[in-house]
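Recap from last week: sequence in, structure out.
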Amino acid sequence: MTDNITSVGGGSRPETGMSALKGRTGAGAPAETRGKTTIADAVVAKIAGMAAREVPGIHSLGAGMARAFGAMRERVPGAGGGGAVTRGVKVEVGERQAAVDLDVVVEYGVSIVDVAGGVRTNVISAVERMTGLEVVEVNIAVDDVHLPDDEEDQTEPDEGRVR
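Predicted structure tokens:
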């Protein structure tokens, strides 16, 4: 019988970027623990990205260039805009633990300290609840502040000066 074991990368496993949760085996083991569950790093990144976006005061995720390229990629049909969920999110998954790095843009007027605390709480809760991995740290880099005027400039149509 084996107890719950989590292993990632290297070792005798050929695949990388995965977390494998193994349960106890044998006739006496409960059905839900028989077998192995594998969690890809991308899954942890998506969970962390969605959890961070749920926090009030977060405008978007991703550093300046990543947001710019992502915005262009989303406008091109068939270019695969699915990376938007993980933009600004990096994860490192170990044997039983995970670490998350986030690049965020906050809304103007919010307390950055409060928003960062809310993001940490939400990300840790979501990742630990959904994956069973212990989140040892959530590092947050605030790359920009979204100003109310920024949106107005983007939504105005380009009109000529002369009619």
